Automatic annotation (TrEMBL):
It catalyses: N(2)-acetyl-L-ornithine + 2-oxoglutarate = N-acetyl-L-glutamate 5-semialdehyde + L-glutamate. N(2)-acetyl-L-ornithine binds at R141, S280. One of its GO terms (molecular function) is transaminase activity. InterPro entries: Ac/SucOrn_transaminase_bac, AcOrn/SuccOrn_fam, Aminotrans_3, Aminotrans_3_PPA_site, Class-III_PLP-dep_AT, PyrdxlP-dep_Trfase, PyrdxlP-dep_Trfase_major, PyrdxlP-dep_Trfase_small. May also have succinyldiaminopimelate aminotransferase activity, thus carrying out the corresponding step in lysine biosynthesis. This is Acetylornithine aminotransferase.
Length: 404
């Protein structure tokens, strides 16, 4: 098969900040993907929890196609119908009273952190500016968001980084108590830490965070870029915990593959973003909002949300069967269709070897750090695709174990 470009072109023309797989996907449908050579892959990666309804979902294709024939972009000098409809839907389905649209999770978190500081400045003075976040958290790749994220490897070589940021231990109430003060303007938490290994928060930890923020007049921010939009079995994970934040960031799955991010907040907090205080050229783009409205409408249905737990159980049962044969996982953890398989001591640091072995079996999976395999498939993946994906993972693990 003749191709105009190949994987080798990446190394010649792209900035080398990524190390993509050895094949190039060219077509997707549901939870199957085909590469340039026509090989069919099972997708249990979901574009890193982005393809929430799989590839080329017909209702998303229709929404995009319809909007593409109407209006693409007008800028924020004007508003547009798809943005207003999406904002209304998010307000209806969540705690939020106000919505800000942007293009990514990093942008949504950037807006959240800026708003938290501006709100504190407006209401309590300039000295109340400290942002607290968790060790090993991940909130984006802008200089501000990597600084808030608790992983030094992402800020090395990029200094000086923004100040006024401190970190505490995830799921450790005493660590948060020791860190928070009346100078704290916001506490930022992922209800399920994604990049650091798929770690769900303890309910008591989130409840304590809410109480501590209230006691110190600090805002509670939930980063639900990865855990949101049905991924855990609720529209947003905070709804399962019964702990309501002041600000929530959303992206990834909300667009089903089309780039869009959103920051949700209350009317009281939103007032600190007056005209001209923040913006995004493409934020609220009609194409993105039309697609996202369809995504939210589908995912928020009881049928889809209930199906997430059933698919979780099917995957976990299959993963347990694989582990019974090969003993490669210490534990399988996570919520809904965000699942982490923690490798045993014998395979610590070798997650990418499993990724490569899966690729050879025409299976797409993810890693979360050096020692955790991550699965984040479509929320509507079929039982047949789950079973075939598990079959291919079994073959990949068998090959890797035999080569040990």
């Amino acid at each position: 098969m003749s191709n105009t470009v190949s994987r080798a072109d990446f190394d010649q023309v792209m900035v080398p900040n990524y190390g993509p797989a050895g094949f190039i996907p060219v077509k997707g449908l549901g939870s199957r993907v085909w590469d340039q050579d026509g090989r069919e892959f099972v997708d249990l990666a979901g574009g890193i929890a982005v393809n929430s309804l799989g590839h080329c979902h017909p209702e998303l294709v229709a929404a995009l196609t319809e909007q593409a024939g109407k209006l693409w972009h007008v800028s924020n000098v004007f508003t547009n119908e798809p943005a207003l409809k999406l904002a209304n839907l998010l307000v209806e389905k969540t705690f939020a009273e106000r919505v800000f649209f942007c293009n990514s999770g990093g942008e949504a978190n950037e807006a959240a952190f800026k708003l938290a500081r501006k709100y504190a400045h407006d209401n309590f003075g300039a000295d109340k500016n400290q942002i607290l976040s968790c060790v090993n958290s991940f909130h984006g790749r802008t200089l501000f968001t990597v600084s808030v994220g608790g992983q030094p490897k992402y800020t090395e070589g990029f200094g000086p980084v923004p100040g006024g940021i401190s970190h505490f231990e995830f799921n450790n109430i005493e660590s948060l108590k020791a860190a928070i003060s009346d100078k704290t303007c916001a506490v930022v938490i992922e209800p399920v830490q994604g990049e650091s290994g798929v770690l769900p928060a303890d309910p008591a930890f989130l409840k304590a965070a809410r109480e501590l923020c209230d006691a110190h007049n600090a805002l509670l921010i939930f980063d639900e870029v990865q855990s949101g939009m049905g991924r855990t079995g609720a529209l947003y994970a905070y709804q399962q915990y019964g702990v309501v934040p002041d600000i929530l960031s959303s992206a990834k799955g909300i667009g089903g593959g089309f780039p869009i991010g959103a920051m949700l907040t209350t009317e009281k907090v939103a007032k600190s973003f007056g005209i001209g205080s923040h913006g995004s050229t493409y934020g609220g783009n009609p194409l993105a909002c039309a697609v996202a409205h369809k995504v939210v409408s589908i995912i928020s249905s009881p049928e889809v949300l209930a199906g997430v737990e059933a698919r979780h159980q099917r995957l976990v049962t299959g993963l347990s069967a694989i582990n019974a044969k090969y003993n490669v996982f210490q534990t399988v953890r996570g919520k809904g269709l965000l699942i982490g398989c923690v490798l045993t001591d014998a395979y610590q640091g070798r997650a990418r070897e499993f990724l490569k072995a899966a690729e050879k079996q025409q299976l797409m999976i993810l890693v979360a750090g050096l020692s955790v395999l991550r699965l984040a498939p479509s929320l509507v993946i079929s039982d047949a695709d789950i079973d075939e994906g598990l079959k291919r993972l079994d073959a990949a693990v068998a090959e890797l174990v035999s080569a040990k």
